[in-house]
């Protein structure tokens, strides 16, 4: 199925065609829903999804992205996320989850964060009403294909939006790269400076220089952009 999907994806030229292919993928995987949602560096958004329009409109009207644990987790992480492993204990989160389930989203979900060129961010999610045991088996058996599919869809969305999925890469100096690499590995600024045998002030200069080159809002954003652009090896 993966090979056939990729072949069909190569022929897609419009966002409408991409959405139709996502619907077909949903049917092929026999799950309730699939969502691909992309946000570029300037805040422009695009989504290919199978949710009912009423739920999509409700989500946007209520700005549920502010309280949605899935969205928040995908912004902070790089690895696949099972929805049930997230914190739904807050009142707003519990209310949101109940409304989502009532709207047919499903009680199970699995999301893949995607970081593309020039600060682009996307997430790819599948959801269903399977039992915990069946869902665990399904995700374990399909995670590798889902990873590939999510990135192929993201690549195609970038091609449709920009005419290409390539972006001009920023060039960082060796010291700027070292500084961001240390932070990406979880080092504090003090530990990073010590490891690089430089002062914290000098480290801050390198970090700020890299942040400027990457057009990042803050240090965390700079690290994310450098990782997405393949400038860091962690």
UniProtKB/TrEMBL annotation:
Keywords from the UniProt entry: DNA-binding, Transcription, Transcription regulation
Highest taxon above the source species: Bacteria
Pfam family, one: GerE
Classification via InterPro entries: Sig_transdc_resp-reg_C-effctor, TF_LuxR_autoind-bd_dom, TF_LuxR_autoind-bd_dom_sf, Tscrpt_reg_LuxR_C, WH-like_DNA-bd_sf
GO molecular function, a single term: DNA binding
UniProt record, GO biological process: regulation of DNA-templated transcription
All residue ranges annotated as the HTH luxR-type domain in the record: 165-230
CDD domains associated with the record: LuxR_C_like (cd06170)
SUPFAM superfamilies linked to this entry: C-terminal effector domain of the bipartite response regulators, Pheromone-binding domain of LuxR-like quorum-sensing transcription factors
Protein name: LuxR family transcriptional regulator
């Amino acid at each position: 199925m993966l090979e056939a999907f990729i072949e069909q994806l190569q022929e897609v030229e419009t966002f409408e065609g991409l959405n139709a292919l996502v619907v077909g993928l949903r049917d092929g995987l026999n799950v309730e829903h699939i969502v691909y949602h992309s946000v570029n560096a300037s805040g422009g958004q695009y989504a290919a999804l199978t949710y009912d329009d009423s739920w999509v409109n409700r989500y946007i009207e209520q700005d549920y992205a502010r309280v949605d644990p899935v969205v928040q987790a995908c912004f902070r992480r790089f690895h696949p996320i099972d929805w049930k492993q997230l914190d739904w204990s807050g009142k707003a989160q519990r209310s949101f989850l109940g409304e989502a389930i009532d709207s047919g989203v499903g009680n199970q979900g699995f999301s893949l964060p995607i970081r593309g060129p020039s600060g682009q961010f996307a997430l790819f999610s599948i959801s269903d009403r399977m039992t915990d045991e069946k869902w665990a088996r399904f995700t374990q058996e399909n995670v590798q294909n889902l990873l590939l599919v999510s990135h192929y869809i993201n690549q195609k969305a970038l091609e449709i939006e920009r005419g290409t999925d390539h972006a001009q890469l920023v060039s960082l100096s060796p010291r700027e790269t070292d500084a961001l690499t240390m932070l990406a590995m979880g080092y504090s600024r003090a530990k990073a400076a010590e490891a690089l045998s430089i002062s914290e002030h000098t480290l801050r200069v390198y970090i700020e220089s890299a942040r400027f080159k990457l057009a990042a809002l803050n240090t965390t954003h700079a690290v994310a952009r450098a990782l997405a652009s393949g400038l860091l090896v962690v």
